Amino acid sequence: MSGGGLDVAKVRADFPILSQEVRGRPLVYLDSAASAQKPQAVIDAISHFYTHDNANVHRGVHTLSERATAAFEAAREKVARFLHAKSDKEIVFVRGTTEAINLVVQTFGRKNIGPGDEVLITALEHHANIVPWQMLCEQVGAKLKQIPVDTRGDLVLDGLEELLTPRTRILAVTHVSNALGTVVPVKEIIRRAHARGVPVLVDGAQSVTHFSVDVVDLDCDFYAFSGHKLFGPMGIGVLYGKKEHLESMPPYQGGGDMILSVTLEKTLYNRVPYRFEAGTPDVAGAVGLGAAIDYLGQVGLDAIATHDRELLAYAEQALKAVPGVRILGQGRERSGVVSFIMEDIHPHDVGTILDREGVAVRTGHHCAQPLMQCFGVAATVRASMALYNTREDVDALVRGLHKVREVFA
Ligand code: PMP
């Protein structure tokens, strides 16, 4: 049961939800790219917070409020260390990747993007890294352009310098495609964009879960991820921004905590990152996310990366051997997910039959409709893997797919 130095049996025991049966079969959870399961340590941290420390943050002088504030800020420090950021002041707590990107669009974007300017994204993006930019472009009269993808699922970077024009104000790119698993060479893209003076936002929703990320080494301007995909709670996420950017950006939402002083005539805004955290934050969520980061540190990010790589290779081999299965996305480097279609069988039918076997996979367009259009399909079946998945899980998926074939024979 172990792979890459990871004791997967021990890891699985840390995730209580995995030990249940679904439809009379042991649960095989292959949908972590949509939302990952939570280790007991995360559940306990949230429960401990509400049981012992719950109070509002940054406001009270009483003991519980001080404790809650300390727990919240300790979580921010953990996130900063996790991303190798220079300072915890570069970490803004948000609801998730979606809100992080919307924040950048509506603050950095509104300030720096005007009529005739260009925003460059890629053909691999999740809707969360398309629609907010499209909305801004419509609002200000800017143009949305994209780096194309080839038939293997890799970005076509030959023409990047032509796409980076003097009007390009930002490049927004995913680190790992949620629909195909392609790992994008973001470091190289950032270097080439910076050479043209273009800042880069990286959508890290699918990367932080599989390998270590160093925002200083990448030199990205913004990095976004969601707690719930990182084995933490739903409703909490992170925007990393270089301090000089955050300090130059206007606030996102107005309200409590983001101000220094308010009169009817004028408000003085708080320093970063608090300027971007209006209202009561999800303190328990941040505490839970901090516990998830601690947990991953204990298991070992390198061991997780090796395990995930080995399991993905095993899954791809196993799926290729199933008659009628076509894998989409054979990019140079892949991580976490394998997307496929079955000849003449709708992905939703595949997913429904797999569920009867206790196997949970994702079916649909994976919030990446433009990418699906590039591949000429409306939907795929996506199996996504995490540190608690095993070869036995993949074998159960393959057995399920043979059942699907029998049903449709
Ligand atoms: N970007 C990518 C690459 C994703 O996979 C997802 C989640 N599927 C998102 C953004 C959006 O994340 P959230 O819904 O947690 O905001």
Automatic annotation (TrEMBL):
Protein keywords: Pyridoxal phosphate, Transferase
EC code: 2.8.1.7
Catalytic reaction equation(s): (sulfur carrier)-H + L-cysteine = (sulfur carrier)-SH + L-alanine
Record-level Gene Ontology MF annotations: cysteine desulfurase activity; pyridoxal phosphate binding
Cofactor: pyridoxal 5'-phosphate
GO biological process: cysteine metabolic process
Residues in Aminotransferase class V domain copies: 28-397
Function: Catalyzes the removal of elemental sulfur and selenium atoms from L-cysteine, L-cystine, L-selenocysteine, and L-selenocystine to produce L-alanine.
NCBIfam families assigned: sufS
Family: Belongs to the class-V pyridoxal-phosphate-dependent aminotransferase family. Csd subfamily.
This protein's name: Cysteine desulfurase
Source organism of the structure: Hyalangium minutum
Lineage, top ranks: Bacteria, Pseudomonadati, Myxococcota, Myxococcia, Myxococcales
